[in-house]
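Interim report, section 4.2 (structural modelling).
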Amino acid sequence: MSTQAAAKIPAPKEGPGAPKKGLRRPVGTLYRGREGMWSWVLHRITGVAIFFFLLVHIMDTSLVMITPEGYNAVIGTYKTPIMGLGEIALVAAIGLHALNGLRIIAIDFLTIGPRIQRLMFWIAIGLWVVLLVGFVPRQILHIFGGA
Amino acid sequence: MSTTIDAPRSPRSPLRKRRVNWEKWGWLYMRASGIVLVVLIFGHLLVNLFLGDGVKAIDFAFVAGKWANPFWIVYDTLLLWLALIHGANGMRTIINDYARSRFRIVLLVLLAAATVGLLTMGTLALTTFDPCPAGTPADLLPSFCSTL
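Predicted structure of the assembly:
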């Protein structure tokens, strides 16, 4: 769907895409098994996960229409340690989806985008790690800390 | 489905009426809403999950305090519509990729129903919200309810 192809097509090494001995990665394809493919896979998986969380999250928030007690009871389940770890997974998924989404936009709209898509993938991963380094310790304090 | 091909050098056939290219607008929507959602969602996570006591601070009074400000009503309404339509369109793409024949139609109908239903419910929650419902203990309500 999105243009995530790299610009350079490596020439097949001896014969039509014949892989060398012991080389597991398919040769003659620039997309399969590389950053372009894995970013696409991760984008789909995180997207589906976020979508289902969003469905639940709209429903739990809509409980404010029924009673304050009901809303508090349901939101209370988000404050347990297991859900606290789930929130880390949620922020990790959203962060990856957001940063890779910006990369896709750059690939689609910047002239040099397709040429630097691999570099941008690793930049996105780097920013994602920075995001988690900022979030995870604080979240752990919130969940496992006192009060 | 058969296609008829004009004989060579026949006069140009009249242009077909141009239709709206929905796939193109969907493609554009994913990118435009995506950029806005990056800002809105990280703001949402910052206020509700990172600052203060994080998720432990969230209860009815917290929501009522936020929604007393029209800024957060507009913010959360934008978040609801942009995010859910973005997510639903993404799910549509995935359903079209992996499901076939009648199963695909069933999934698409379910997706559309869930999307319309949740947009309606979420918008109702935001627009008909009562921060001080009668008969609720005051300690569950935002502090401004006691001064009313």
